[in-house]
């Protein structure tokens, strides 16, 4: 992700706000974890979710009426950047994930990250996020309450996540690494005896 708009949206002062974004109805995205704990955060912080809530194939819809939960609908990029830029914590609840662009955007915008403990998130964000066992509402609520009540810890975690995002997940670095791989592949193909015989 190009960091400019997201970094620019970030505010030094953060609202006691917990956010998640995505296909809320999708069990693989795990957003129901957050719906299950939102009520436990009443009086400590607000919980806002953005994305599609209605299951497109007639399955179970996301519970937008859960206690202490606000559904923001599907936001355009500018409004999403503003939401992430004001939020204290971003929750990534996925049960599986090939990468996860929304947590990256949240990190660039200055959110502290709380993530389901899956291999992808551990590989990318270990040391820069708090992790909870997917489906364990008690551990998720504990992590969120702890960060909402500890501004210094939250700021430190958010800073570490932003630094990692800026160092590792920029378009220029991705393009340079792809170019290196392609150059190496072209070199090995040119030297391959199989191609010499053709």
Structural features, described:
Helices cover 47% and strands 15% of the residues. It is built from 9 helices and 6 strands. A 6-stranded parallel sheet has the order 3-2-1-4-5-6, sandwiched between helices. Strand 1 (15-21), helix 2 and strand 2 form a beta-alpha-beta unit. The longest helix has 21 residues, at 171-191. 37% of the residues are buried. The mean pLDDT is 90.
Features:
six-stranded parallel sheet; alpha/beta; 6 strands; globular; 198 residues; 15% strand
Number of strands: 6
Mean pLDDT comes to 90
Give me the side-by-side strand order of the main sheet.
Answer: 3-2-1-4-5-6
Q: Which residues sit in consecutive blocks of at least 5 with pLDDT less than 50?
A: none
Largest sheet: 6 strands, parallel
Helix-strand sequence: HEHEEHEHEHEHHHH
The geometry reads as: globular
Rg, Å, rounded: 19 Å
* Number of H/I helices: 9
**Oligomeric nature of the chains:** single chain
What is the strand content? 5-15%
Structural class: alpha/beta
Distance between the termini: 42 Å
């Amino acid at each position: 992700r190009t960091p400019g708009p997201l970094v620019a949206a970030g505010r030094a002062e953060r609202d006691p706000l917990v956010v998640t974004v995505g296909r809320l109805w999708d069990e693989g995205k795990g957003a129901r974890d957050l719906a299950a704990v939102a009520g436990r955060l009443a009086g400590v912080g607000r919980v806002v979710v953005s994305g599609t809530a209605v299951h497109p194939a007639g399955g179970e819809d996301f519970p937008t009426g859960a206690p202490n939960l606000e559904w923001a609908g599907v936001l355009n990029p500018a409004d999403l950047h503003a939401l992430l830029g004001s939020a204290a914590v971003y929750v990534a609840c996925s049960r599986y994930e090939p990468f996860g662009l929304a947590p990256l955007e949240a990190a660039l915008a200055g959110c502290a990250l709380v993530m389901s403990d899956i291999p992808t998130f551990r590989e990318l964000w270990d040391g820069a996020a708090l992790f909870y066992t997917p489906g364990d509402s008690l551990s998720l609520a504990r992590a969120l309450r702890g960060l909402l009540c500890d501004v210094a810890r939250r700021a430190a975690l958010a800073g570490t996540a932003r630094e990692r995002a800026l160092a590792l997940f920029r378009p220029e670095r991705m393009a340079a690494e792809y170019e290196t791989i392609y150059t190496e592949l072209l070199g090995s193909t040119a030297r391959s005896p199989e191609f010499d015989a053709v």
